[in-house]
Amino acid sequence: MAGARSLREDFVASVVVTLVALPLRREAVRLDPSGLRHLDHACVTALEGWERTRMPPAGREGVIQDGYPPPVAHELKRTLGVFDAVVVGLGAMVGAGIFTALAPAARAAGGALLAALATAALVAYCNAHSSARLAARYPSSGGTYVYGRERLGPFWGYLAGWAFVVGKTASCAAMALTVGAYLWPGQRHAVAVAAVVALTAAGYGGVQRSARVSRVIVAVVLAVLAGVVVVCLGSGAAGAGRLGGAGRGAVGLLQGAGLLFFAFAGYARITTLGEEVRDPERTIPRAVPLALGIALLVYAAVAVAALSVLGHGGLAASSAPLADAVGAAGWPAAAPVVRVGAAVAALGSLLALVLGVSRTTMAMARDGHFPRALAAVHPRYRVPHRAELAVGAVVAVLAATADLRGAIGFSSFGVLTYYAIANVSAWTLDGGVKDRAVAAVGLSGCVVLACALPPASAVSGAAVLALGALLHALRGRFRSGI
Question: What is the pLDDT of residues 282-291, one digit of tens each?
Answer without folding.
Answer: 999 999 999 9
